[in-house]
Amino acid sequence: METWVPAVLAVSAALLIAGGTVLRQRASASSGAITRGWWVGAIIAIAGFTLQAAALGLGTILLVQPLVVLAVLFSLPFEAWADHRHPKLGEWAWGGVLVACVVTFLLVARPTSSLRRPDLTLIAVTVVSVIGVVIAFVLIAERSSPHYRALFYGLTAGVLFGVSALLIKTVIYQAVHFPIGMFRHPEVYLLVIVIVGAIGAQQRGFGAGDLQTSFPAMVVMEPVVSMILGIVLLGENVKVSTKTALFLGIILAILARSVVELAKHSAVRGQTLKADPAPDSDDADSKEPAPDPGS
């Protein structure tokens, strides 16, 4: 499969995920209710996740996941349109950094798949490690203040969404090559459990009331975990020297920082919209009777 096909699917997925997320956020910003606009946004986001699944089925995780991160960038113009404003210069600057990091990583790393698969010991160690990290994050979250509860539930959601990317790729492979016996494989049911857990952790993080903490943590952790699992469990390769690998590490660190900054801008705006009084509140105040001069 040509690399450009999953790349186009991944970028298209990022575009739809961004648009659907903004629609859902804005449709429920004033009252928190699920409205018709929220459902439209949900349908668009589901279409985006479907394209992401297709991209994962055709390409490597190391190619698809960095491109899907561009959803954070694509949300800029959508949010600006919804809020009737122009994006700030700082937002465009961090957006440019994000694009530069993604392009640089893909051009230098040139990720490829391989037929190498890990032995059972490595699989067992990886699974136990992931489960241990998730349990530790949840325990720390439940014993922490709201700020750190949001942080660790955001990290938990990111880990689980990262695992789901690996499982999606595995399930699609089974569906394509062994469609009749697909539901005999545990990956299908494990995917459902992981996604439900990820959504639950995401909602717990949002419920802590510190969106600008949980959202960036989740957005950064997801591609990190999925890319590590792609290398360890699927044998995906980046054929580079040690010096180039260090350079790519720096690029990924800068990419993570740009995602955090853009996600913070988005989260803060979302909280501001929910905190703003209704448009008619000022008018209602102005219609209050004037105080009696003699009082």
Automatic annotation (TrEMBL):
According to the record, the residues making up region (Disordered) are 271-295
List all membrane-crossing ranges: 6-25, 37-55, 89-108, 120-140, 152-176, 188-206, 213-234
- Which PANTHER family does the entry mention? CONSERVED INTEGRAL MEMBRANE ALANINE VALINE AND LEUCINE RICH PROTEIN-RELATED (PTHR40761:SF1)
Q: Which UniProt keywords apply?
A: Membrane, Transmembrane, Transmembrane helix
Answer yes or no on keyword Ribosomal protein.
no
Protein name as catalogued: DMT family transporter
Give the Basic and acidic residues compositional bias ranges.
Answer: 284-295
Q: Does the keyword Coiled coil apply?
A: no
What is the top-level taxon of the source organism?
Bacteria
